[in-house]
Amino acid sequence: MTVMPARENETAQADTEPAQEALPAPATETETDFKTEGDLPAVATAAGATGATASEIAFDGKEAKASGDTSHLDKGIHHYESYRAACEQAGKPEKWKAHYQNGHTEAAGWNQPYEHRAVNDWTLKKGTSASDALKRWMAGPTIADYRAALLADEIDEVRDEMGDRKFDRLFGSANEAEDRAIPVSQRLRISSDAYTTPLTDQMKAIAAEADTKSRQPNEPVAAPQVETRVEAKQEVVAKDQDPLVVAQELGVEQRDREIV
Q1: Which residues pair with 110 in a beta bridge?
Q2: Which candidate, 68, 66, 103, places its Cα nearest to that of 83?
Q3: How many CA atoms lie within 13 A of 90 on its CB side?
Q4: pLDDT tens digit sequence for 117-128
Q5: What is residue 171's predicted lDDT score, i.e. its pLDDT?
Q6: Strand ranges (E), 112-188
Q7: In this predicted structure, what is the pLDDT of residue 249?
Q8: In 171-247, which ranges are E strands?
Q9: Residue 53 CA to chain centroid, in angstroms?
């Protein structure tokens, strides 16, 4: 039979071929690849190492200082929630006071919101330089909402445009005489309620009106009245005459009157 040699040849060929390597098992259905185009950004390790949380982010968006450094709590403008969290993060919870929630500033010369029961509302005290008080308010530490903070920044631009001297003369002065002349409604005020009002435009209008008045010519001065003097007639005072001369004159007159 001829088939047997053929099978023997096939068996011999199979024995001489090297064994093929086993293929890797296909991935199971649960192994899903979520990778999109490009590599995924690496996860920052600094934040994980420090354990920074959202509560540690300050009002200006910067990360709070390390515990023990409280300098950031003594300057700038803060939202009350951020300031409270920053005090706790710095290990100084006593720096936070409950009434700060309604607004507070360490700047001198202001009536505080909790003193006149108006949230985020500061009014300038009498006899206070408006320009100086505004600068101190912005230097802080001040706890205020974003509306009051933005309004203060707009007012500061007006101050810079006018100059401190003119700004004080119109909105609050340390000079007692100047300060008395400023209407109460015109005295400097920082309030979140005034954020939607054209406050800075009104301040500029007040300044323009003051400039107009200062440029007006002075009122004419009345002409001085000239007194009409009537000169008194000079009285002629007779001097004392010599008695002999008088007697002679009288004698002559007497003879003229005698009838001959």
Answers
A1: 124
A2: 103
A3: 23
A4: 899 999 999 999
A5: 98
A6: 121-124, 142-143
A7: 59
A8: 189-191
A9: 31
Q: What six digits make up the tokens of 96?
A: 């936070």
**Residue 201 identity (one-letter amino acid):** D
Q: Any bridge partners for residue 143, and if so which?
A: 78, 104
Distance set, CA 239 to CA 202, 236, 247 (Å): 85, 9, 16
Tokens of 178: 């100047």
Note the pLDDT of residue 214. Answer: 82
Which tokens go with 228?
Answer: 């009409």
92: pLDDT confidence band, cut at 50, 70 and 90? very high
pTM for this entry? 0.59
In this predicted structure, which of 68-82, 135-149, 244-258 has the lowest mean pLDDT? Answer: 244-258
The pLDDT, as a whole number, for residue 50 is: 37
Which of 129, 176, 136, 175 has its CA nearest to residue 152? 136
Q: Containing H/E element for 25?
A: none
Structure tokens at 101: 């929630």
**Buried/exposed code over 117-140 (b: 16+ C-beta within 10 A; e: otherwise):** ebebbbbbeeebbbbbbbebbbeb
Residue 195 has pLDDT above 80, yes or no: yes
Give the HSE-up count for residue 58: Cα atoms under 13 Å, Cβ half-sphere.
20
Q: Where are the alpha helices (DSSP H) in 163-198?
A: 164-171, 176-180
Q: How far apart are CA 107 and CA 52, in angstroms?
A: 31
Residue 254 CB coordination number (10 Å): 9
